[in-house]
């Protein structure tokens, strides 16, 4: 048995999503821009899929723009906000715990002459609104704050931060990377009070290679790419109809199962913590993250990359910090100020609605075996 407990890295594509993709590839396969019935059918399907994604997000269809992934949505939001605000200023506020898809474009803009204020997290992984208040300025053009941190499972105070931004930097746009929060934490873009919001398909049982950027209606946002007139002229490129069909199916399923999935993941998280406390008390949670699906743990004195490899050999999939870091030390754990032994031992367990207690049991057994096989690092 494989225990797949790395759902924050990616999820299994659901049968409904896979079937929707096959249908779009083999039946409604026309180009939505084509002016004959096969094309019109694809265009009609695309409109229905947009409505499904909008319903899951709790926004209007015309506010949903399909992208190739969460990374594209983040890059587009950030570049676009800077372009739109060029007559106001070049100051950005973001957090030190964002995903690389936000960090890197901000770093690039810093090299290009923008000023970036990086809000540091407290030891609990959260961001202080007081720090945000102090950072906001009349020339701030963008605030970007994620909803759920992918490495810690913390839920950041996006709604309060957006309110504060409205008050103290009314010309700034507020972007939220909700890739890990979508269908895990209830929200609507309007209730959060934000302008731009990124989601990604492969975290919610759709395939890799599709996502969406929410752009608040009324905002005249610039495109990132230039080309044909697709996505209302804002995101050119022939629409990825199969991925979009699958994304919509996953949104429909995810939205209808959301309350029970959240309760289930929360219960599994509690179960994991209880099992570990009983059988492996030296494994500690890094923070008290409120997201139901992400649990950051550490086995102090052990190297997480080695631990994760041994667990993998035993059929248990978890990640050493964020899957996107490929062995580089995590900027998030460094920003928390964790001491070295804790930091090096951090691994992430993440659930989906499909995860089971049997998988958690397999994790605990594998951890016990791995601990016996490995020596603590001497540093
Ligand atoms: N933002 C967060 C918080 C993520 O966790 C990820 C992926 O792990 C991304 C953005 C990037 O999404 P994608 O893999 O679709 O580019």
Number of strands: 12
- Mean pLDDT comes to 95
Run of helices and strands: EHHEHEHEHEHEHEEHEEHEHHEH
User: Major sheet, described briefly?
Assistant: 7 strands, mixed
Strand order of the largest sheet: 2-8-7-6-5-3-4
Poorly predicted parts = none
β content, as a range?
5-15%
Query: Given the helix and strand composition, which structural class is it?
Result: alpha/beta
Shape, per Cα inertia axes: globular
What are the bound molecules?
Answer: pyridoxal-5'-phosphate
- State the end-to-end distance: 35 Å
Indicate the radius of gyration in whole angstroms: 21 Å
Helix content percent band: 40-55%
By DSSP (H or I, 4+ residues per run), the number of helices equals 12
Q: How does this model look, in words?
A:
It is a single chain. The protein has 379 residues and is of the alpha/beta class. The protein contains twelve helices and twelve strands. The protein has helices at 15-26, 37-57, 70-84, 100-111, 129-135, 158-168, 189-192, 241-279, 304-313, 331-336, 340-344, 357-373; strands at 3-4, 64-67, 91-95, 115-119, 140-144, 173-177, 196-200, 211-215, 284-285, 294-298, 316-317, 346-350. The strands form three sheets. It has a seven-stranded mixed beta sheet, sandwiched between helices. The chain has a three-stranded antiparallel beta sheet with strand order 9-10-12. Strand 5 (140-144), helix 6 and strand 6 form a beta-alpha-beta unit. Helix 1 runs antiparallel to helix 8 (241-279), helix 3 (70-84) packs parallel to helix 4 (100-111) and helix 8 (241-279) packs across helix 12 (357-373). The longest helix has 39 residues, at 241-279. It starts with a strand and ends in a 6-residue tail after the last helix. The mean pLDDT is 95. The site of pyridoxal-5'-phosphate has 15 residues, from helix 3.
């Amino acid at each position: 048995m494989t225990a797949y407990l790395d759902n924050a890295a990616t999820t299994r594509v659901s049968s409904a999503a896979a079937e929707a993709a096959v249908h779009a590839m083999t039946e409604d396969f026309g180009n939505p821009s084509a002016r004959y019935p096969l094309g019109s059918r694809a265009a009609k399907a695309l409109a229905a899929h947009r409505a499904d994604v909008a319903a899951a997000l709790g926004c209007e269809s015309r506010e949903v723009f399909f992208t190739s992934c969460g990374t594209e949505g983040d890059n587009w939001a950030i570049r676009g906000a800077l372009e739109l605000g060029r007559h106001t200023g070049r100051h950005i506020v973001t957090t030190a715990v964002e995903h690389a898809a936000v960090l890197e474009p901000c770093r690039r803009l810093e090299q290009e002459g923008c000023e970036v204020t990086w809000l540091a997290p407290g030891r609990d992984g959260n961001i202080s609104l007081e720090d945000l208040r102090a950072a906001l300025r009349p020339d701030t053009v963008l605030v970007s704050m994620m909803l759920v941190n992918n490495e810690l499972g913390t839920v950041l105070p996006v709604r309060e931060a957006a309110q504060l931004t409205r008050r103290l930097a009314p010309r700034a746009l507020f972007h939220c990377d909700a890739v890990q929060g979508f269908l895990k934490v209830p929200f609507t873009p309007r209730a959060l009070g934000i302008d731009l919001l990124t989601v990604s398909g492969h975290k919610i049982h759709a395939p890799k290679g599709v996502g969406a950027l929410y752009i608040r209606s009324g905002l005249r946002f610039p495109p990132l790419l230039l080309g044909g007139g697709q996505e209302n002229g804002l995101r050119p490129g022939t629409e990825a109809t199969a991925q979009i069909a699958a994304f919509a199916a996953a949104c429909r399923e995810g939205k209808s199962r959301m309350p029970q999935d959240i309760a289930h993941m929360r219960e599994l998280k509690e179960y994991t913590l209880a099992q570990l406390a009983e059988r492996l008390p030296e494994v500690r949670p890094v923070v008290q993250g409120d997201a139901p699906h992400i649990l950051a743990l550490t086995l102090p004195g052990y190297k997480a990359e080695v631990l994760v490899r041994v667990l993998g050999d035993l059929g248990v999939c978890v990640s050493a910090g964020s899957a996107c870091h490929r062995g580089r030390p995590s900027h998030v754990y460094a920003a928390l100020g964790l001491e070295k032994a804790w930091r090096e031992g951090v691994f992430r367990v993440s659930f989906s609605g499909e995860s089971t207690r049997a998988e958690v049991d397999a994790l605990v057994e594998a951890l016990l075996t791995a601990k016996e096989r490995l020596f603590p690092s001497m540093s």
